[in-house]
Amino acid sequence: MTDRNRNAALRPKLPDWLKVTMPGSPRYLELKQLMRGQQLHTVCEEAHCPNIGECWDRGAATFMILGEICTRRCHYCAVTTGRPQGLDLQEPARLAETVKRMGLRYCVITSVNRDDLADGGAFIFAACINRIRAESPECKIEVLIPDFAGSRDALAQVMDARPDVLNHNIESTRRIFPRVRPKGDYRRSLELLAQARELAPGVATKSGIIVGMGETMPEIVATLRDLREVDCDLLTIGQYLRPSAKHIAIDRFYHPDEFAELERIGRELGFKHVASGPLVRSSYHADEQHDAAARSRHPAP
């Protein structure tokens, strides 16, 4: 194989519907400077999200707490893997201050996996929720959490702080899950969503899938059914984009019409909102998903 063919295999040409404008608006630059000044990280940057320009331009960002080093090596993810150093107990205060300065009405908080911590970092998640509530009581809060190694006690810490949305991404289908997330567990992720519903019935639950890693359409639908069986409210489906040659190769690019069909199926299965599209990520227009869940719980008279 020639170098040209090898590079094409590693980085196949993107279809037109996956091409985005490079970020660089004044609002984007302002937020980037603010993040660096507060020593905060965003999954938007760490995971090479294609929507960073659009979201930051509209004043939305997903904050990544507990450092930037993950203890797991998922084969689709661009976040750095290694051994984290310590725990920043001042992070909740800095995050709350940034949310207040940005005037956010909706905030998404996620993290790396911290298997080195007894509670997986649940205490810091809860502290962030509580500090933001104190500083910005009108701001809605969504948390996108890891699986906390299956600890119900860790999950309870987060749910006791009452986020508005509890998000945990299943990421893939049952068959290929072990190849995609070797340190995760498909059933454990479903159990976490079920436990979240038990611990805080009033909190909306959410999950997401990325496609294009070797799954089939029937397998995707089966995973949607599994999520509905644990009463998951909200769903995101997006196209996998390979971060580097070290990650799983792209099996194929799904057409926008296929994403539209998955959205239709998701709605028929009973999800309160489905965001399905080539560039959709778990936090994409998260505020709109929350509003859809709230309307379903309290429909207009």
What is the CATH fold-level name? Answer: TIM Barrel
The CATH architecture would be Alpha-Beta Barrel
What's the gyration radius in Å?
19 Å
Q: Helix amount, in percent?
A: 40-55%
Number of domains: 1
Q: Count of DSSP E strands?
A: 8
List the strand order in the largest sheet.
1-2-3-4-5-6-7-8
Would you tell me the structural class of the helices and strands? alpha/beta
- What is the percentage of strand-forming residues? 5-15%
CATH class: Alpha Beta
Which stretches are low in confidence, meaning pLDDT under 50 for 5 or more residues running?
A: 1-8
CATH superfamily caption = Aldolase class I
> Could you tell me the mean pLDDT?
85
Alpha carbon gap, first and last residue: 65 Å
Quick recap:
By secondary structure, the protein is α/β, with parallel strands linked by helices.
